[in-house]
Amino acid sequence: MRKIAYGICAFLIFVCDPSLGLCQAAPPSGNAAVTIQGTVTVCVKKNTSNPKPCDQNNSVKVPALVSDVGRASWDASGNACTTALETISAPGTAFRISENATLVGTIETFDPATLTGTANVVGYVGGSCTGSVFNNQGATKRSTSEVTFVISAGGTRIDGSVTSLSLESIELATFSLSGTGFLQ
Fold first, then answer.
1. 99 bridge partner residues
2. Most buried in the list 43, 69, 119, 146, measured by CB within 10 Å?
3. Facing residues of 125 across strands?
4. 0.90 cut: is pTM over it?
5. How far apart (Å, rounded) are the C-alpha atoms in residues 143 and 125?
6. Which residue has the higher pLDDT, 53 or 24?
């Protein structure tokens, strides 16, 4: 289970200016507090924590709760870097880990009329952020995701939902993850 990582916070730090007709990070640089919560179900070999394809004999589905709390920084080009404390636990067991995650995101689409869009996010264990710039020293890629988001509260709040998620080292059976970001 330690190999599970959910790099999904970075989508929460973008603010758009509809008067420009495009999405950009606004203010030109800044920070936001972000939270993510939800569940994932992964497949492992029965009586172990070793990853196994979900459709093979002797595999079991293990549900886990995920919680990320972090701080994000972004630049005017729509690039973001987030550092977060990620906690993963399996209900009904003593299993619980907390790891430092680094999440790197970019906006892919944005509709200024509806204030909605999508972002791609890559999650790592290790690495660090210097503002919106990702420092990959010591980083191991753990996940990729796509997020759909909506901007509200005069551009100070962003709510998002993960629409696709893949993990590098373990097969994912199901997921339901969402989050909120507030400019600081």
1. 86
2. 119
3. 101, 140
4. no
5. 10
6. 53
Mean pLDDT of 52-57: 86
Closest CA to 74 of 144, 148, 141, 158: 158
Correct CATH for 9-183 of 2.40.300, 2.40.160, 2.40.128, 2.40.10:
2.40.160
pLDDT tens digits along 128-174: 999 999 999 999 999 999 999 888 888 788 899 999 999 998 888 99
Structure tokens at 8: 């999904």
CA atoms within 13 A on the CB side of 146: 6
Q: Is the dihedral of CA 96, 52, 69, 85 positive or negative?
A: positive
Contact 135, 127 (CB under 8 A): yes
